[in-house]
Design a protein that fits this description.
3 helices, mainly alpha
Length: about 80
């Protein structure tokens, strides 16, 4: 099953909207669309960072990698059980 819309994605979209609004109203750049793109990029970056930190979900990668030692330990199982 793939990942579908999750609540912490709203933070990313909110950051994009805030960044786009900042690009429109705060930065005075010519041509105007460069300010929009700059603001949108910063908003997406900031929103993704905040969402990743607050939710603990890696949005840009597959998560932590398991080392060979950890994989062997997991496959071996718990040796303390009878």
């Amino acid at each position: 099953m793939g990942r579908y819309f999750q609540p912490h994605h709203l933070i990313v979209y909110g950051g994009a909207v805030i960044g786009l609004l900042a690009g429109v109203y705060v930065w005075d750049v010519e041509p105007r669309f460069l300010g929009w793109l700059f603001g949108l990029g910063l908003g997406l970056l900031g929103g993704a960072f905040v969402a990743e930190v607050t939710s603990g979900t890696a949005l840009a990668s597959g998560g932590p990698k398991i080392t060979r030692r950890e994989r062997e330990w997991l496959l071996r199982g718990d040796e303390d059980e009878p």
